[in-house]
Amino acid sequence: MSAALTDLGVAELRRLLRARETTAAAVAEAHLARLEALDGDAHAFVAVIRDEALVAAAAADRALGRGTAGPLAGVPVAVKDLFAVRGLVRGNGSPAFAGDPPATADATVVARLREAGAVVLGTTHMHELAFGPTGVNAALGTPRNPWAADRVPGGSSSGSGAAVAARLVPATLGTDTGGSVRIPASFCGVTGLKPTYGRVSRAGVTPLAPTLDHVGPLARSVEDVALVLQAIAGHDPADGSSARLPVPDYAARLDRPLRGLRLGIPRAFAFELIEPEVAAVFETALVDLREAGAATTDVVLPSLAHANAALGATILAEAERALGSLLGSRRAHTGLELRVYLALGKMVEQDHYLAAQRLRTRLYEEARAAFARVDLLVLPTTPVVAPRPDELLVRLGRQELDTAQAITRLTAPFNLVGLPALALPCGLTSARMPVSLQVVGPPFAEDRVLAAGHAYQRATRWHERRAPFPEPG
Description:
Blueprint: H1 2-6, H2 10-18, H3 24-42, E1 45-48, H4 50-66, E2 76-80, H5 108-115, E3 119-124, H6 158-165, E4 171-176, H7 182-188, E5 191-194, E6 214-219, H8 222-232, E7 262-265, H9 267-270, H10 276-291, E8 295-298, H11 307-327, H12 336-345, H13 350-370, E9 376-380, E10 393-396, E11 399-402, H14 403-408, H15 413-416, E12 421-428, E13 434-440, H16 446-460
Parallel strand pairs: 2-3, 2-4, 7-8, 7-9
Antiparallel strand pairs: 1-3, 4-6, 5-6, 5-12, 9-13, 10-11, 12-13
């Protein structure tokens, strides 16, 4: 029974727990046992809070017995190491914070997970201070990609993606500044959502670039992601950027068909630089979408071609300011990569930053015009499958690109404009590495994005493929 429990996602566990076919204590024990057996190899978790988790599970069982349980009662979760979790040091993926005192309060989203009855198991590894898309962390160790030990898990929410794929926990939270939820979702073959900017509070979360940062869930299915989003979304007075808008019932809106949905493909941009196998898998996904009733058409957003440069200027300038003040004298204890990025941030001139913001506005207007013609945009999540840690350059067609630039090419534009973007598995390459489909919607149209993703998953079942991660014993 323990092994079976760790194979289940959020929605399946909720059904079992509410039917009293298992207990929150049994679910917690099963996941803690798998963690103990496998995380030495997976290296997904920074800290595991076993005793606190068992206390929370016992409380969930009591609430389930009384009929007063929250929507995630008894469901295990974990959060990235830059979320404040009471009783734990917020390490931010860096040795620079090793001597900090434990947090005395939870980040808003962690508190909301607890209020919903979720059982927090601990915190997950990450790229140092969230500044990188590979997940490689030289100082604290890189989580294993459960699909291939010699490939990166994607970052910066590396441990969050790896933990879900390795079935150590059914759902996690990450952050996404240039793709850092969607990239690990892509490379680890799971489902991840970057909500609209302002949909989810960032209070109690270490910032990287405040106008680009988003908090989002990773899980095994769109249904699971919708259930977690429901628990964490909504206005927060502690976060001035959070939107004062009602939160729909995402799960209730999932069962809308693809038939009649208009999908726009930014083909010229997406296919300009892409691995042939990724392009082929994506084309098959388009066939599946059309067979399920969706209509597809090509769209052109000219500013997409310049989005990575605009994001680069924005993230470098904002990160130097946000992290510089956070680190202070501790900067010397960070890794070389981070120090280089912070030094580059000082070189971004005001004119460069303002030009990036003008490009940002143009891209938003182009996206708004596109959404007058189509309901959603679809494109690959990443133009490459997970590279090896030592691959500093990747060849796409006749060009060699910096690996970080290549990885973020198709995700970064949607951080600039703050649109909701969903990553979900859509196939495997000949080397059995996952490929991911990205679905992008208008502002605060998470319900539409999630419904399309859910319909695709019901039609294809790629999200049910398991990574070949070794079992205990």
